[in-house]
Amino acid sequence: MSVFVFGGNGFVGSAIIRKLVESGVPCVGVSRRASDIAPWHVADAMDPSTYPDMSGARAVVVSMGTPPLPFVDYETQRAANGASNVRVLEAAQALGVRTVLVNATMPRWAPSGYRDGKLDAEKAATGVVLKPSAIYGTRYHNGIPIPLHFLAPVSWVFRLPIAGKLCELAPGLFEGALVPPVPVSKVAKAAFDACVTDDFRPAVLGPHDILSVLP
C-alpha cells in the first residue's frame, strides 16, 4: 500500500517523500522528471492516461503548482495550480483512495490565476487540505541542500497579536498576508500524518494548525 506523491520533485513534495522514506512507508514519486530519492513514475498530471495504477494505494498526495508570479498569464496559472491538481484528485477519489492536497493560504490580492487555481483545487478535494502560507526550510537541487531559513524570524513576528489586529482593521490588505510562514518539515509531517493515520477524516489545516503539528 504505497503513498503516491504527485509533484514529488518540488520543494514540498520532495520533503514529503523524504519523510515517508525515513519512516519506512512505501511511496512512489510522480512527476514529469524522475528522481532517485524513491521509486518513481514519470507522468503528466494533465493526462490521466499516464498515471500509475493507484488502486489500493494508502493515499495520494497532491503537491503541484507554480509560484504566484504577476507576469504569468491567467490561464497558465489557473491550469497549473487548479486543473492539474483537480485531475489527480478526481482520479484518486474515484478509486476510493484518501487524498492529501497541499494548497495555500493567500491574500485576496494574490494574482487572480494563481488564486482561482488554488480555489479550484480546494473545491475538488474531499480529504485533507493543507493550507500553508510561505514555506521555508532546506530545498534540494540535484542532491545539494540549499538552506532557506530567512523566513523563520518573520514567522515569529506574524504570530504576535498585532498581526491579528491588523488583519481585523484592514482585511482586504492584510488577511491571508500576515500569516506566519511555516517550515517545510511541518508541512511534510502534517501530510505524512494524514497519509498514515488510522483515524482519517477530511480536514482543512491552515498555517497555525500546521505549526502546531508535533515533530
UniProtKB/TrEMBL annotation:
Residues 3-137 form the NAD-dependent epimerase/dehydratase domain. One of its GO terms (molecular function) is protein-containing complex binding. GO terms for cellular component: mitochondrion. This is NAD-dependent epimerase/dehydratase domain-containing protein. It comes from Chrysophaeum taylorii. The lineage of its organism: Eukaryota, Sar, Stramenopiles, Ochrophyta, Pelagophyceae.
